[in-house]
């Protein structure tokens, strides 16, 4: 029996480290990435309806297609095909994350639709949602987990990372989008060293020290493509970030802070200097999907 309307957070996906370790014969790149998710993100509400509907609201609504190209609708249709459902639903997407910004917004939206429909339709706990997500995009299985993890392969091999400390974080995008395909095309070599082993025990200091030994292999080609990334990283460092880096294929950058209050103060400072940028203070989610 279908339940009432269900809302879900579609959190920002942050690649704390991203190593490109090879390329398959079919052209897909092989990755190793330490990934976290944040309390800030898009929001999805799925409601049973008499007819299908799709509505996009929020500050970045104008940047998204509202037709079948949208990953949220593709996720709905894939779930129907997989489970033989045809129930009409109205989907409201509140788009709070910049589009094409390296924080997995579209993938996270799709994952939220998949998990929400699974709850509405009361699907069994062992339903293979990750397989459905992977057919739509390599990042969707990890977005279904939405907790600290290491992703390998094309992003589909997932290892949970329990005990990762809570991270105060500021996200900054200087108002530019980047094409993931173009950034990968600008990558000078796909064959790079994998992630080093994580330290133990994991606390803020040891994590920052470990991150300084890692890379985002897409940052250099992204910065050659979009020069605004450099000023965004400079602003985070100036605001007191213990560590800063670009996430994914960019152009969103993140800074790590020892507390949520420190992140909030830094976000205020950056907004004053750059009122036209996207700036958000947030914290990471833990293994249970709550604030770490």
Task: Describe the protein's architecture and organization.
There is one protein chain. With 292 residues, the chain is α+β, with helices and mostly antiparallel strands. It folds into 2 domains: 6-160, Ribosomal Protein S5, domain 2; 168-283, 2-Layer Sandwich (Alpha-Beta Plaits). 30% of the residues lie in helices and 27% in strands. The chain has 9 helices and 10 strands. The strands form 2 sheets. Strands 1, 2, 3, 4, 5 and 6 form a 6-stranded mixed sheet that branches. It starts with 5 loop residues before the first strand and ends in a 9-residue tail after the last strand.
- Mean pLDDT, nearest integer? 94
Largest sheet: 6 strands, mixed
For the termini, the CA-CA separation is 34 Å
Order of helical and strand elements: EEEHEHHHEEEHHHHEEHE
Number of helices: 9
Helical content stands at 25-40%
Q: Can you tell me the CATH class of the largest domain?
A: Alpha Beta
Low-confidence stretches: none
Structural class: alpha+beta
Write down the domain tally: 2
Question: Features of this protein?
Answer:
Alpha-Beta Plaits, Ribosomal Protein S5, domain 2, 292 residues, 30% helix, six-stranded mixed sheet, single chain
Task: Give the helices and strands, then pairings.
Blueprint: E1 6-23, E2 29-48, E3 53-57, H1 71-83, E4 89-94, H2 105-120, H3 129-136, H4 140-145, E5 149-153, E6 157-160, E7 168-173, H5 180-185, H6 204-211, H7 219-225, H8 229-238, E8 243-246, E9 253-257, H9 260-273, E10 278-283
Parallel strand pairs: 3-4
Antiparallel strand pairs: 1-2, 2-4, 2-5, 5-6, 7-9, 7-10, 8-9
């Amino acid at each position: 029996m279908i339940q009432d309307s269900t809302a879900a957070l579609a959190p920002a996906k942050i690649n704390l480290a991203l190593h490109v370790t090879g390329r398959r014969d079919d052209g897909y790149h092989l990755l190793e990435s330490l990934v976290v998710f944040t309390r800030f993100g898009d929001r999805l509400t799925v409601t049973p309806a008499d007819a299908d509907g799709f509505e996009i609201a929020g500050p970045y609504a104008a940047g998204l297609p509202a037709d079948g190209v949208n990953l949220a609708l593709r996720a709905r249709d894939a779930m129907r095909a997989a489970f033989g459902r045809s129930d009409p639903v109205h989907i409201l997407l509140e788009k709070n994350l910049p589009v094409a910004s390296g924080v997995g917004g579209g993938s996270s939206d799709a994952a939220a639709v998949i998990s929400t429909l699974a709850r509405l339709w009361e699907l069994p706990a062992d339903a293979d949602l990750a397989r459905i997500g992977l057919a739509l995009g390599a990042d969707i299985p990890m977005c279904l987990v939405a907790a600290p993890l290491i992703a390998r392969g094309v992003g589909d091999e997932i290892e949970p990372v329990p005990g990762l400390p809570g991270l105060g974080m500021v996200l900054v995008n200087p108002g530019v989008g980047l094409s993931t395909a173009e950034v990968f095309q600008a990558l000078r070599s796909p064959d790079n060293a994998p992630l080093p082993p994580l330290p133990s025990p994991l606390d803020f200091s040891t994590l920052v020290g470990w991150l300084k030994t890692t890379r985002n292999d897409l940052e250099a080609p992204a910065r050659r493509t979009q020069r605004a990334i450099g000023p965004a990283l400079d602003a985070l460092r100036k605001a007191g970030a213990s560590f800063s880096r670009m996430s994914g294929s960019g152009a969103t950058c993140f800074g790590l802070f020892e507390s949520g209050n420190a992140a909030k103060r830094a976000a205020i400072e950056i907004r004053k200097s750059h009122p036209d940028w996207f700036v958000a203070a947030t914290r990471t989610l833990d293994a249970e999907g709550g604030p770490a």
